[in-house]
Amino acid sequence: xxxxxxxxxxxxxxxxxxxxxxxxxxxxxxxxxxxxxxxxxxxxxxxxxxxxxxxxxxxxxxxxxxxxxxxxxxxxxxxxxxxxxxxxxxxxxxxxxxxxxxxxxxxxxxxxxxxxxxxxxxxxxxxxxxxxxxxxxxxxxxxxxxxxxxxxxxxxxxxxxxxxxxxxxxxxxxxxxxxxxxxxxxxxxxxxxxxxxxxxxxxxxxxxxxxxxxxxxxxxxxxxxxxxxxxxxxxxxxxxxxxxxxxxxxxxxxxxxxxxxxxxxxxxxxxxxxxxxxxxxxxxxxxxxxxxxxxxxxxxxxxxxxxxxxxxxxxxxxxxxxxxxxxxxxxxxxxxxxxxxxxxxxxxxxxxxxxxxxxxxxxxxxxxxxxxxxxxxxxxxxxxxxxxxxxxxxxxxxxxxxxxxxxxxxxxxxxxxxxxxxxxxxxxxxxxxxxxxxxxxxxxxxxxxxxxxxxxxxxxxx
Length: 462
What we know:
This protein is α/β, with parallel strands linked by helices. 42% of the residues lie in helices and 21% in strands. The chain has helices spanning 41-60, 63-79, 81-92, 96-120, 149-163, 177-188, 203-212, 225-237, 260-272, 292-304, 316-331, 364-367, 383-390, 406-413, 447-452; strands at 6-9, 12-15, 21-26, 31-37, 124-127, 130-136, 139-143, 166-170, 196-198, 218-222, 241-245, 251-254, 284-288, 335-338, 354-359, 374-380, 399-402, 422-423, 441-442, 455-461. The chain has a seven-stranded mixed β-sheet with strand order 14-15-16-13-12-17-18, with helices on both faces. β5 and β6 (130-136) form a beta hairpin. It is globular and about 65 Å long.
């Protein structure tokens, strides 16, 4: 697969300053498909300088013109959707249909939403004898993960551009090819030179240099809670703003009045989607004791159907990590009813779709984010017990509630300590704010709340 051998800085592809490269591996067959440069602190400095130089003109650009560039970007991404899907499938291992329907399609919807917001957002308003003016925060460091590589890029870059910020993107080293495609799309959309810049590289080198660069005003990071803590500490030392979208251990609460079969089947599908590599996945299924055995049988049967349909996890390290969690679940006394630690294929980083029963809230697999196709089914006694279990982790990113009466589900959802809850299988909304409580992060992405992260406020008194 063709890859650029340089960095996209100030509107052109420039040679990397160092000789090191990153090998991009197809996780389905373990073959190297491309090599990209491993950026250095010098590459990062060049990119940040370009972003800083481009900031005054872009910040002064009329919102309508920024909206036009985002609309053009939306159109380019839509036109290149097949190439995007094939690229994500090659470097992430996602089944092609899922890449087409999610990895390629969702970013188009998000870009479209910010094209509209850039044109309609009230960047100025009156408050008594004051005019309150919103302006771009400045240069943004966008550090994105590999699990939804293009979606996470667009969810950071699009609102930043809509706000009038300039950006340096450091994508995950496992999925840099779709980031390069995105840079091509930005160029084709006519975004001025220096407004968007791309540096590929490793987190401890390029990522750290971006976080610590004195000319970066905001760090927007999606990834693990552990890395988020380090970024928050580093940025905090410089009183630099951060937006952190981190881990999750979301609860799927099935109340007794719910359609049990539907709730279980949709819940299993949610966990197996993207090979379980979704921070908001409902990895804890909570079922009333009277329906527990039936729910476990339904979950095991549903998981078995994913054996040939699920893709690999992203790399060998992640495969070993997920399998280690499965082994720990068995060791701590959970009952394996589907899947297990053995790899289902001889080649590729595959993990069997796995379901555990008899999981207690204090078990490791019920507390820690596994990031693989592993579901824990927990038993609860009554609604208060379900709420205690649902809220009983350090995370609070997402969740789900099922009930025969929608108002019953909503009442329960309002008591959950989490940033987003799906009611009876509610659909993904690209303009609804996404982000977490507790150790699931700081700030929000998507929609007007996502735009607000990239703005700062000035009041003028008259």
